[in-house]
Amino acid sequence: MNTSIYDKTAKGREEIATRRDGLAPRLRSLLVLIDGRRTEEELLRNVAGLGLTIAAVHELLAGEYIVLSTSYASMAEAPAEPPAPEPAPELAPAPPAAAQVQQFQSVYQFYNQTIKSTIGLRGFTLQLKVEKASSVDELRQLRAPYLEAVQKAKGSDTAAALALQLDRLLGFN
User: Segment Disordered: which positions (predicted)?
Assistant: First the structure.
């Protein structure tokens, strides 16, 4: 059982926020899950459905997106020090579960494939918004502008057909 715990570096947090380095979507999904609290075993269990292994963790380490924060074994060996008072916890959004990661990737791919083929160059700004999105909720907010652009470019029938597909991916149906 591996009890290593990883945390994002400044470079890793910047990659999540800006996608500067263009990290592969599967690796980005793993990077999003790394929070300095979950063990390596938990992380790998959550991304097993994406086909990611320990090699993906090593790739993020080599790219300096994450750093080994601690492990339970080293915590047990460390001399006992009085714990520092913790600041009041802020309400943070729950970390994405494997199902949410899969949903995000499905909606993200749907937008990427259909914006180019249906809207063309007029969809460039919308495509940038999809690239900046970091959650399913942010992708949901792009539904109305996306469907409006498709309707202008290809008509109501195409927009209605794509709306059904998109709604199924977003969990509206």
Answer: 77-96
